[in-house]
Specification:
By secondary structure, the protein is mainly alpha-helical. It is built from 16 helices and no strands. Helix 5 runs antiparallel to helix 6. It is globular, with a radius of gyration of 19 Å.
């Protein structure tokens, strides 16, 4: 399962904040008829590829079929590659489609029994199983399965002594897309001892995970404070500037005063 998570993970914070214009390609009745004739594995692959390509109707088809796919599709290199592309999409609905396909490929029903299984697995001594569960908990939380409980569990793993566990707890929290994770992620970015974990928290706030633009904007005031916080090192200052650029699509110098002037001008509009 670890390979699945790595394949699906979002890139680092240095990816471009500008996105190409989306081109929508409507799915024809012929396309959908052909998909009906496919086996479930090929259906999932074809529809996820269509969703990544912004074919109208593909996202809705995934939502409609994903529950039926559970137990009939498997994680493979094609699903891994398409899930990674979906979770990097500039369209939040496409990212959510990637979540649906991942859960189906993992054989996880969107219910409390599956969630209980993941909670137990997140305590496993098997390291790879543990961090897979932290990732999958985020997927479940995003789909509305006891989201508050998921956030509470992932938050508890932010205190783990193991750096890798904290990193994947951060990734899972970003996947939930919950308002309640913004402040904990800001706290991690400021306080975690590991540069890797701090960077992943910054990236989660900036562009990875499943937050809306409005949720990301809620982090801006604190990120502004981080740009010249004397308690933070120079690298974390740079991550704060990069996150601000990714969230706001403004291309200002790494200068705290310039960013504060811009932000005040936006607030006064």
């Amino acid at each position: 399962m670890l390979g699945a998570m790595v394949a699906a993970g979002i890139g680092n914070i240095r990816t471009s904040s500008s996105s190409p214009a989306r081109q929508h390609h409507p799915a024809t009745s012929k396309d959908l008829h052909e998909i009906d004739d496919m086996k479930p594995q090929k259906q999932a692959e074809a529809l996820l590829e269509m969703a990544v390509g912004h074919s109208d109707g593909a996202v809705d088809q995934i939502s409609y079929r994903s529950g039926w796919w559970r137990g009939q599709i498997q994680w493979n290199p094609q699903i891994a590659s398409l899930s990674a592309a979906a979770l990097n999409s500039n369209d939040l609905r496409v990212r959510q489609s990637g979540v649906e396909v991942e859960l189906a490929a993992y054989g996880l029903a969107k219910n409390s029994a599956s969630l209980d299984y993941l909670v137990r697995t997140a305590e496993s001594p098997d390291h790879q199983q543990k961090i897979w569960a932290l990732w999958a908990l985020g997927l479940m939380g995003n789909r509305g399965v006891e989201t508050a409980r998921v956030v509470e569990i992932l938050s508890s793993h932010l205190q783990d002594s193991d750096v890798d566990s904290r990193r994947w707890a951060v990734e899972g929290m970003a996947l939930t897309g919950s308002d309640s994770t913004i402040q904990p992620l800001l706290n991690v970015m400021h306080d975690d001892a590991s540069p890797l974990v701090r960077e992943r928290a910054a990236c989660s706030l900036a562009e990875s995970g499943l937050f809306t633009p409005e949720q990301r904007m809620a982090a801006v005031p604190q990120l502004l404070n981080y740009t010249d916080d004397a308690a933070l090192d120079a690298q974390t200052h740079r991550w704060a500037f990069q996150a601000l650029s990714d969230i706001t699509h403004q291309h200002l110098p790494n200068d705290s005063a310039a960013w504060r002037t811009w932000y005040q001008s936006v607030k006064s509009e």
